[in-house]
Design brief:
The complex is a heterodimer of chains A (about 500) and B (about 150).
Chain A: H1 3-27, H2 34-39, H3 46-57, H4 60-73, H5 78-81, H6 85-104, H7 110-117, H8 122-155, H9 159-208, H10 211-220, E1 223-225, E2 231-233, H11 247-260, H12 265-273, H13 280-310, H14 323-331, H15 333-369, H16 376-400, H17 402-409, H18 413-429, H19 435-454, H20 465-483, H21 491-498
Antiparallel strand pairs in A: 1-2
Chain B: H1 7-26, H2 30-49, H3 57-85, H4 102-122, H5 124-127, H6 130-142
Helix pairs in contact in B: 1-2, 2-3, 3-4
The chains are: A mainly alpha (about 500), B mainly alpha (about 150).
Chain lengths: ~500, ~150
């Protein structure tokens, strides 16, 4: 890449980080109470909530990993990326009930909701915090690792320097402003992603001529070997609905992201951040439109890379993850600037989301569940200090321990589904769901999330383990709740459940 | 539509459908699993939209039922056309898309947006009206705190 291009990309990325930092500093004055700092509770309108939800969900993996998977194995992954309906589904399922919880108790974290619903049961809260934390820290490590290597390679500096420059600044503004600054900076970063998406989608149709041209080109040659010695298998089967993955993967990548969206912290926490619950349908529209653009960007980037390879314009890619960069390189400098900025924005938005979630879960929810009492007036200071430490440790570990990143990377979306569904989805939708049921469901989730890593245990199925774990955790929650005595709900909680 | 008395049954159905999706996905009947995923999601939405156990008929027909039909149709058509062309160049395309991928774009993606997202916005009062919210806020302000037992 020419030196001038590198400089322009670096300046654009630096500007984006500077604006995010400024937003965080400005937001600090609004984060004065625990509810504001930890939850941004009842503070935001539909635009900020919608954009930040999309930015929190669409991580660096969505912009780099997803086009890579579609380039490598075809369309199965499109079920995940074209899942804009998931947000409306989440709001329909839980939106009003989660927001209503903030009217009956001071809610500033997921642990607070768990307390209100399950009678301050410390074991449930501790188990839930540990499982959600595994998922959040996994995501955080992956974002730091991806964002740091991207910028380190671009401007030729050591990854640890890039890590502290980018994610160190992110840790500072997130720790100072909490969820308020996190949510507002995510909304800004989401806007950058949408901008890049619009330009690249238009460019895809102009350059390739559209989906028909890609299908013709990819179907015409079964295999291409480039001057770089890399061979890429093509053919029409790559672009049918399921691609070349086993069919069960299409099922997993349809059901888990769509229904599982309601179990993601970046969606759940936004439900109580909204000022008026009747703004959630509007937030759903904002999220739908923006996620549509970003999701479609990931799909067209993969299709464009396939077209470039099939027509012999570029050599087959050494790794699928290069797909979006290959398309941007072909388009030229402004596309490169937008793609790098969008990938960095995706990493920053997800990292700040998971940094606040993890630190709140550990320093507030888990400590409370373990009986460690922190005075309310000290809570923000303690969590702020903890966030600095967690941020610094995460940067060092993510960059120096690729084994740890790989290990943590196995916890993610599916882990979060298995940890949140028993507590929040079954807990808030079904009055009969009781403490024993949820406790057993969470135990199943914890055991089956950890067992495959700690032992040689494998599920007797080609489906991903997180899918099976989620199904088992939910089924056990339902069965045990039905077999154990019913619990009476408090009048206020009953009103929430009936809303 | 009163589902208040059937919530236990719905919870059991949710558990059964999760397991059924695992079984069908494991045994190679993944299209059946995807179709079963639709009632699984629909049951969650019915529980979510119900006010005091009552689901608005208007909201049930649009967006929920129409969404369910579109998605079931999408998975069945994708399965049919993917099997019909078996990895070969299809004899026709839908706006340039492989006939098995076109349902994903038009029914699953755009159809999902035009039903759930748009329907939730258009019929938001059936989900939560201004009156419902105000009544709820007034009610909980006057209720005593209490714990589950």
């Amino acid at each position: 890449m020419p030196h001038s291009t590198v400089i322009i990309i670096a300046i654009f990325c630096a500007l984006m980080i500077a604006v995010s930092f400024a937003i965080g500093l400005w937001a600090k004055k609004k984060a004065t109470t625990a509810q504001a700092y930890f939850g941004g509770t009842a503070m935001f309108g539909p635009l900020a909530v919608g954009l930040s939800s999309m930015a929190g969900i669409a991580s660096a993996f969505a912009l780099v990993g997803v086009p890579g998977i579609i380039y490598t194995s075809g369309n199965a992954m499109t079920f995940w990326m074209l899942s804009g309906a998931a947000f409306a589904m989440s709001y329909i399922v839980l939106g009003k009930k989660v927001r209503a919880m903030a009217e009956i108790a001071p809610i500033s974290s997921l642990g607070d909701i768990c307390d209100v619903r399950f009678n301050n049961n410390h074991v449930i809260k501790a188990l839930m915090s540990v499982i959600i934390c595994l998922g959040c820290v996994g995501y955080l490590a992956a974002q730091i690792s991806a964002g740091s290597s991207l910028i380190a390679q671009l401007i030729d500096i050591p990854p640890i320097v890039a890590g502290f420059l980018i994610f160190g600044l992110l840790t500072v503004y997130t720790a100072l402003s909490g969820e308020v600054g996190g949510l507002l900076s995510q909304a800004f970063q989401g806007f950058i992603m949408v901008l890049a998406g619009l330009v690249l989608i238009i460019a895809f149709f102009v350059v390739t001529g559209g989906f028909g041209s890609v299908l013709e080109a990819v179907s015409a040659v079964p295999e291409v070997t480039g001057a770089n010695g890399v061979t890429k298998t093509l053919g029409a089967g790559l672009l049918d609905a399921w691609g070349t993955m086993p069919g069960g993967i299409s099922l997993t990548w349809m059901l888990i992201p769509i229904l599982g969206c309601v179990g993601q912290p970046q969606c759940l926490t936004r439900m109580y951040a909204v000022k008026d619950p009747r703004d959630l349908p509007k937030a759903g529209l904002v999220t739908a439109v923006t996620h549509t653009i970003v999701g479609f960007l990931a799909v067209v980037a993969a299709y464009a890379a396939l077209w470039l390879v099939a027509t012999g314009t570029i050599d087959p890619l050494v790794a699928g993850d290069q797909a979006i960069y290959a398309f941007a390189d072909y388009l030229g400098i402004w596309a490169q600037v937008l793609v790098y900025a969008a990938v960095l924005a995706a990493a920053l938005s997800s990292a700040s989301m998971f940094l606040t979630s993890s630190s709140t879960l550990i320093s507030k929810d888990l400590t409370a569940a373990l009986g460690i009492k922190i005075a309310p007036e000290k809570q923000i200071r303690v969590s702020r200090a903890f966030m600095f430490i967690l941020g610094a440790v995460a940067i060092v570990v993510s960059i120096y321990s690729s084994e740890m990143v790989a290990l943590l990377g196995t916890f993610g979306w599916g882990t979060l589904v298995s940890g949140t569904f028993p507590v929040f989805v079954m807990g808030l939708l079904w009055e009969r769901c009781n403490e024993k049921g949820v406790l057993c469901g969470l135990l199943v989730s914890l055991v089956f999330n950890i067992l495959p890593l700690a032992t040689s245990f494998t599920f007797p199925s080609a489906l991903p383990g997180y899918f099976i774990t989620s199904a088992l955790a939910i089924a056990v929650t339902v069965i045990v709740s039905l077999l154990t005595p019913k619990q009476t709900l408090s009048p206020k909680l009953d009103a929430v459940m009936k809303l | 539509m009163n589902i208040g008395k059937h919530k236990d049954l719905i919870a059991v159905l949710i558990a059964v459908l999760w397991i059924a999706c695992i079984v069908t996905g494991t045994t190679g009947h993944f299209v059946t699993g995807m179709v079963l995923g639709v009632p699984l999601m629909l049951l969650h939405m019915l529980l979510g939209v119900a006010k005091n156990g009552i689901v608005s008929k208007k909201f049930f027909f649009y967006p929920l039922l129409i969404w369910a039909v579109l998605w079931i149709l999408s998975f069945i058509l994708s399965g049919y056309f993917a099997a019909s062309f078996g990895g070969e160049m299809p004899t026709f395309t839908v706006l340039g898309l492989h006939p098995s991928f076109a349902p994903t774009i038009f029914l699953y993606w755009i159809g999902g947006q035009l039903t759930l997202n748009l329907g939730h916005y258009l019929y938001q009062d059936e989900w939560l009206s201004e009156k419902d919210w105000k009544e709820f806020c007034t009610k909980v302000r006057n209720l005593p705190d209490g714990e589950v037992n």
